[in-house]
Amino acid sequence: MAYFKFDHIKIRGISCVIPKNIIRTEGFKDRFGSEEVDKFMEMTGITQTRWTSEKQTASDLATAAAQNLIKQKGLDPKEIKALVFGTHSPDYRRPASAFVIQKQLGLSTETVVFDISLGCSSAVYGMQVVASMMVNSDIDKAILVLGDTTSKTTNLNDRASIMLIGEAAVAVYLEKTSEKVSPIRSLLRSDGEGYRYLIVPAGGYRNLNASVQEEVCQDGNPRTLHNSFMQGTSVFTFTISDVPKAMKDYLAITETTIDNYDVFAFHQANLLIIKQIAKKLKIPMEKIPLTLPIYGNTSGASPLVSLCEFYGNQEAKKLKVMMIGFGVGISWGVTSFEIDTEDIFPIEESDYCFAEGFIGSVSEL
Amino acid sequence: MEKILKILSDVRPDIDFESETLLVEGGLLDSFDIVSIISELNDAYEINIRVHDLKPENFNSLSAIQALVERKLSEK
């Protein structure tokens, strides 16, 4: 079992940025028909989302979120000694997007910088990776950034996925402390048998000549090999069985109960999934912040987007948070931590785009 | 059988579940319907339908769904 416990690491800040562009679910009625869109909204709870513009990337959103975090916390960027970016929407095949963020933030060359290729579980995995590095090094200040731009690889006529997608990025500031603080704990799991459940088949090195021809898939939706594909029923079925099991195991290992947590920050997959898990674990819905209706499924950032939406303007108090992530890989996990609400910042909008990063011709290299 | 029939009819009142035998392969049930049915069956019978159970033949007819439920109950 991959269970982790980190003492003397504290989450001191969470900042979130969303794109300015609003996508209203009702707007898909012309494309998919009223009945189907109404059914989708009832099932998922999603009425609108945010998408980036064509050239705005996940690293742009992440940079804006990290810049906001640095400003809010009054940090000197040179003090940050680790920057980890969890994304499956990198700017390039190489280098990792974290380096592009590092440049824009002005972090020192003494900083450890890399990407983690994960989607909807990147918050729980990312927290474990950064905390692990910190406890085994002299790194005392680190930033984890998470973000995806899934709309860019999803076919506009893919009725199984396109209306689900929202885009956002979060930045989390972790600090080593000598104070006695509640430990960060994580339980992580994965199952490569499900590598095809959520996949973009082209763009890697397996099929260098992947066709851009659109075809109708088995589920009746048109896609190219460069588009996202989701086996929705498999993902749903895995989620409502394996995720609650991991949560129950986590409660048993940590000798805690549902009552010990103030908030359950779920990956915002869809309303039916969250309600199913809540029912199985007997979690009161009022302990689950939901941002699906207004931001959609914002991938790995989503549990923290919800914290920023609901606690970004609240009076100072301590929150015991259980965070649950699950998705591409397939991978899933549970993390718990304590945070002061004054360290959770309100969501900001940004259309920031790193223009220098766009390379449109080899003559620009 | 009646309990399952009620669950199915609540999800899709427009389908005659007692006579249809190609619910999935005939395109009568979409993925939203399947996940709703799985949720309801899991709750009603306290079973755990898993990814490897997601074969069309397990959801093509009322009798196939009943057989799946009985199998899951026997695995408990």
UniProtKB/TrEMBL annotation, chain A:
InterPro entries, alphabetized: ACP_syn_III_C, ACP_syn_III_N, Thiolase-like
Pfam family, one: ACP_syn_III_C
Gene3D superfamilies: 3.40.47.10
Main EC class the enzyme belongs to: transferase
Annotated Beta-ketoacyl-[acyl-carrier-protein] synthase III N-terminal domain residues: 114-192
Domain of life: Bacteria
Entry protein name: 3-oxoacyl-[acyl-carrier-protein] synthase 3
Gene that this polypeptide is encoded by: fabH_2
TrEMBL record, chain B:
Signal peptide: none
Residue ranges constituting the Carrier domain according to the UniProt record: 1-73
PROSITE patterns: CARRIER
InterPro entries in alphabetical order: ACP-like_sf, PP-bd_ACP
Organism for this UniProt entry: Cecembia lonarensis (strain CCUG 58316 / KCTC 22772 / LW9)
Protein name (Swiss-Prot/TrEMBL): Carrier domain-containing protein
